[in-house]
Write a structure and sequence with these properties.
about 15% strand; Adenylate_cyclase_1; cAMP biosynthesis; ATP-binding; Adenylate_cyclase_1_CS; nucleotide-binding
Length: about 800
């Protein structure tokens, strides 16, 4: 018998070892659930969970359940059917990823590839997809996460047209077009056959109808590293410790390109040599490759962080006496000794479920820094190649937009604290300390006793108390039981801070989903909170009677004989449709006008009513200030939606000694001192609202722009609006500051231009050096029923509302 003929038996021996390892790391109930994965794919009956329709394709090639599955059925009170299915729909069912490896821990999910018959039609696949979604929900009822992925047998080995037709569109768990061969390589090195054909994953595998061959991973192009690194950064938003290990593997591969020794080849060589020990493990092999690479780079800092990530991902807690000693325990103990870790470090890592926000902050910062450093290395590697020809530009746009919202260097953005493994970061007491020298506020996780604060590190810093407060509320540090203090201030100030934080908590929910369409369009507001006088409060020195203010309906922005403005500072806390929380500071006489001018565009673009509130924190006149600002905010929403293209609306407002006019037009809101415009001032005095003819715009670049573009203008985003002419392309560009430029591109194809511009922004030296992800958004200007409309470029409308 030739050597290739022996390979299926050798592969099956490793497969049995992996199944035994997977089961050894599962609870008794989870073991039964694991056994039911192929069984439920085999069956299609109303008696089983996941049933959708009598026509749902089912059955797995050569699978015949036995007593193990029968026992599992008994546990869940399911009938047991052992017969094979005629014309099975699936070539095989395979677990892949961290299952059965060092990386499998108590919280690990199970990723399952369902390799289906190539002849199944779209309707068949839709039924299967619905069935798998229902099965995922059923497994979740038992706290067992199982994710199913439909895989076409030609997805990796067909030509480009066949591959793109087989690809799943990008979603939270689907990498879409960002990676192709690298995904197959991960499958080959980690797959476990649960049922169906043996996978021919060894080098130079020969085609055999009895085996499943998905393609040759050695065709891996350099251009794929970029898309894969972007995908790992995206996955790192939730699980940065896992993403760091995978992106460093890409970096190690790239360093040896085109002579990279792939992990699946390393594992196969060990298997051929008869090594079925814990060292021949798909996840441990990743660590070995990264360690060798970083030692070669003499990069001890990154290596130390990687070791901690690897240890935490495995979940083998060496300092915990009650820890079960599974097949990984001895190997992990040996590794830790080689790393010369002190007992104190092991104890700290083992206590990760109780890490406080300061520890999490530090670890998150290290992970983010290393993720971005690896991304820049891979970007430099990929910059000599074109973008991966299979990488969809619309998916590139969505990924980079999502990454920009997380890695943005905008100082007004509220950072999200990844809880990683920690169960809770809530604090019973927090203290703010202001630094006049730095003009910053610092937040500490202790009460305001000096000896407690000495030597402690701040868990957060910001430009205003509101920014610290929204950070603490969003990230679970501040709860309804948390008491707030400001160092050096009295009880009254502390109680106002505590009350304000509780009001904020009532306004926050954590269920704002972002769809693909949201990321392909300009942002708009979903929530908006104005916080008044939290740290700058003119009412402290006001000695009037609040009742008289109500009786006389007095103007709190110009109160009494001295015409004092009772609003000292305003913080606008907002959530936008890209799921970014921000806190913007406005202070001085015109604070309320500055704030209204800032929020108007985001209110105008909103497709649904914006959830708005005002929190007044002043010592006096609290309800009066809240009512005045809330009325102004409501009036702003009404007028900015009411204004027509042909006119400008003007609303008067007295602030202190100055009379202002608030102007609303299609571009937003502006304000102006009207003190010298006597005739205009008299007109405003008689009428609360004036409608003015729209002035000639003259050389204003917006005058040559299609009016509909004005509704899409959003600061912070680069936007290209493209209109196809007979032999040219109209290109309108709005930069991050909404500065307009316009040119005509002769003889250019829209897709070609989008690709070229995207490539420029991806590999632009300025962007790469700062790891920026603010790649332009692209829109088409098309006529629908005679009306010029704006449509996001390349977005499948049928798939646009999928959460991303």
């Amino acid at each position: 018998m030739d050597q290739q003929g022996q390979f299926p038996d050798i592969a099956e021996r490793l497969n049995q070892v992996r199944i035994a390892r997977a089961l050894a790391l599962l609870s008794p109930l989870q073991k039964h659930l694991f056994r039911l994965i192929p069984f439920l794919i085999q069956q299609n009956s109303v008696q089983y969970p996941g049933f959708v329709d009598v026509n749902t394709p089912c059955g797995i090639q050569g699978y015949c359940p036995d007593s193990v599955e029968a026992q599992a059925c008994d546990v869940f009170k399911l009938p047991f059917i052992a017969s094979e299915v005629e014309n099975p729909a699936f070539e095989g069912v395979y677990a892949m990823g961290s299952t059965a490896s060092f990386g499998q821990n108590a919280k690990s999910d199970v990723d399952v590839w369902l390799v289906h018959n190539a002849q199944l039609c779209d309707d068949d696949l839709a039924l299967i997809k619905l069935k798998t979604e229902r099965l995922t929900a059923w497994f979740a009822e038992y706290q067992f996460e199982v994710n199913f992925y439909l895989v076409h047998p030609l997805q990796f080995c067909g030509d480009m047209a066949q591959r793109s037709g087989c690809q799943s569109s990008m979603a939270h768990e689907h990498s879409g077009s960002t990676q192709h061969w690298l995904l197959l390589e991960e499958f080959y090195r980690s797959q476990i056959r649960l049922a169906g054909k043996t996978v021919a994953w060894w080098p130079d595998a020969k085609l055999n109808p009895e085996l499943l061959y998905l393609g040759n991973v050695h065709e891996l192009p350099a251009s794929e590293y970029f898309g894969a690194s972007l995908w790992q950064l995206y996955k790192g938003l939730n699980k940065p410790h896992k993403a760091l290990i995978k992106i460093l593997l890409l970096e190690a591969y790239a360093s040896e390109y085109p002579h990279s020794q792939l992990l699946c080849d390393r594992l196969w060589q060990k298997t051929l040599g008869g090594d079925f020990s814990a060292s021949n493990d798909a996840y441990y092999a990743i660590y070995e490759v990264i360690e060798a690479y970083l030692l070669k780079q003499n990069d001890s800092r990154r290596l130390e962080i990687v070791r901690r990530c690897f240890y935490l991902k495995c979940g083998v807690f060496l300092s915990v006496e009650a820890q079960g000693k599974d097949w990984r325990y001895a190997k992990m103990q040996k590794l830790v000794q080689e790393w010369q870790w002190p007992d104190s470090l092991i104890t700290t890592l083992d206590d990760c479920e109780h890490w406080h926000s300061g520890q999490l902050n530090w670890f998150n910062e290290q992970l983010n820094e290393l993720l971005l450093a690896s991304y820049q290395t891979l970007l430099r590697f990929a910059s000599t190649h074109e973008l991966n020809e299979g990488l969809r530009i619309e998916e590139l746009g969505m990924l980079t937009r999502k990454l920009h919202t997380y890695f943005s260097q905008d100082e007004d953005q509220i950072a999200k604290l990844n809880l990683l493994w920690s169960r809770s970061v809530a604090e019973s007491e927090v203290t703010m300390v202001s630094s006049a020298k730095e003009n910053l506020y610092y937040l500490y996780r202790q009460g305001p006793i000096p000896r407690n604060l000495l030597g402690e590190s701040a868990i957060c810093k910001g430009k205003s108390p509101s920014s610290l407060m929204i950070w603490a509320c969003l990230n679970g540090v501040s709860t309804l039981e948390t008491k707030w203090y400001e160092f050096g201030q009295g009880k009254a100030k502390s109680s106002r801070l505590t009350e304000a934080s509780r009001r904020l908590l009532n306004f926050i929910d954590h269920d704002w989903r972002v769809s693909k369409l949201d990321l392909c369009q300009p942002w708009h507001f979903r929530k908006l909170i104005f916080v008044l006088n939290l740290d700058c409060d003119p009412t402290v020195n006001w000695h009037g009677q609040e009742m008289m203010v109500d009786v006389m309906n007095a103007n709190v922005f110009s109160l009494g004989r001295k015409q004092e403005n009772m609003l000292g500072a305003l913080d606008a806390i907002c959530l936008n449709s890209w799921a970014e929380w921000q806190c913007h500071r406005f202070e001085g006489e015109t604070a309320v006008l500055q704030a209204l001018s800032f929020v108007t565009p985001g209110l105008r673009r909103a497709t649904h009513p914006v959830d708005m509130d005002v929190i007044s924190c002043s010592q006096k006149l609290r309800p009066q200030l809240k009512l005045a600002v809330k009325n102004l905010l409501k009036q702003t929403v009404r007028l900015c939606q009411q204004v027509q293209q042909s006119s400008t609306l003007v609303q008067p407002l007295q602030i202190s000694h100055t009379r202002y006019g608030i102007f609303f037009n299609p571009l937003g809101m502006a304000y102006q001192d009207l003190s010298d415009a006597k005739s205009f001032y008299q007109q405003l005095s008689r009428s609360h609202l004036v409608q003015l003819p729209r002035p000639e715009l003259g050389d204003d670049p917006f005058s040559s722009m299609p009016k509909i573009i004005q509704n899409f203008a959003a600061k912070g985003a680069i936007q290209y609006f493209l209109r196809q002419r007979a032999d040219s392309l109209d290109v309108f560009i709005l930069d991050e500051e909404n500065q307009l430029s316009h040119y005509v591109q002769s003889g250019s194809d829209m897709s070609e231009l989008v690709n070229k511009v995207s490539h420029h922004y991806v590999f632009d030296e300025f962007y790469a050096s700062k790891a920026r992800f603010n790649i332009p958004q692209f829109f088409q200007l098309v006529r629908v029923a005679g009306e010029l409309t704006v449509m996001p470029f390349g977005v499948d409308i049928n798939n646009a509302n999928v959460e991303f």
